[in-house]
Amino acid sequence: MLNQLSIENFRNISSMSLPLSKGVTAFVGENGAGKTSILDAVHLLGTGKPFSTHRIDNVINRNAAAVQVVGHMVGPSKVVLGVRRNRGGSGEARVGGSPVKALSELAKAMPLVVINADTLNIVRDGPEGRRRFIDSFVFHVEQNFAQTSRRYLHALKQRNALLRERRGIDDSVWVRDLAAAGELLAASRDRAIIALSHAVSGVLADMHVSLPEWQLIQRCGWGADRSLADALASSVVSDRQRGFTQVGPHRGDVVFFVGGSPAHEVLSRGQMKVLMAATKLAQARVMHQETGVAPVLLVDDVAAELDTENAAGLFRNMVSDGFQVLATMVDASGPMAWTKNGLSNVFHVEHGAITEAN
Which bin fits 116, alpha (ψ -120 to 50), beta or left (φ > 0)? Predict the structure, then answer.
């Protein structure tokens, strides 16, 4: 659990420090007040990157040279996390005072689950976003996934470089690595999808949402009736002509089906958002069950994305599950009623300034 958060020079937040507690902490205020910046700063602390932009310069206060976020974690272990990012992208991250070798160390120390407009639209978005979603989940529940993923992506980069040269250089070493690591990645995704599907069923039932005959299916990125090694061998001529690797987990997808059809073809936009909200809460449940560490949920203006009944169901279950939830909203009256006055803290945000509103 994150029980103390300090932010310096993040967008319109010059400097702030506030205590946090278990349960739902609400950040209320008008649009543009800086509410989402608080969640974005927590995301930077937990991953080394903001969720709102790919360019770190975009979140650094225009009068500052760097942004810094520090968080004190309590729970299974007490540890201080800190991230400093400079304009241009340099910086450092520390866990317990020690520099991290990889940003994944931040994610292990403070796992996060983000529920916002982008994540709620994953069902109807392209496969790249769905791959990022499932892989960020698999990272937490499959011990060797990060190492295998790095091995696969390295082999993919090296082979594609050779293919672009179009000089017939022997790529057999990289093909063997791709085949071996790719099969492991697909198997990890399969196991995670099975666990996630079971948890989604539970969340949908708890939210009183009925979606008959739904499935979550992996499309592995090559023909399911053959090995990846065979698929790579069959596509070698075409790969050399096109200059890149056309089969493998990097071309995979994770697709929701309802009644035998892709969910985006049969569900309304509202229903797809409800399905994805349930999936994100299910993700948090499985992460907690598999690792023993409860993730922090970052919930950005979900009351504006879901209808009242489903937003209420989501908040009730987040509270009953015991997660720490940092949530933005224009008005706290709805979540206050949905959680039976169960909000832990309410902070008012205006022009980057934060005051307690309890």
Answer: beta
How many angstroms separate the CA atoms of 101 and 291, rounded? 21
From 7, 29, 25, select the one nearest 16 (Cα to Cα).
7
Question: Considering Cα of 300, then 306, then 310, then 311, what sign does the dihedral take?
Answer: positive
User: Can you tell me the distance from the alpha carbon of 112 to that of 287, in angstroms, rounded to the nearest whole number?
Assistant: 10
pLDDT per residue over 167-176, tens digit each?
667 899 999 9
Contacts of 12 (CB under 8 A, 6+ apart): 34, 37, 61, 351, 352
Q: Give the pLDDT band of residue 33 (cuts 50, 70, 90).
A: confident
Which residue's structure tokens are 């060797």? 144
Angle at 339 (CA atoms; ends 331, 3), nearest 5 degrees: 80
Q: Read off the pLDDT band of 341 (50, 70, 90).
A: confident
Full DSSP string of 144-205: THHHHHHHHHHHHHHHHHHHHHTS----HHHHHHHHHHHHHHHHHHHHHHHHHHHHHHHHHH
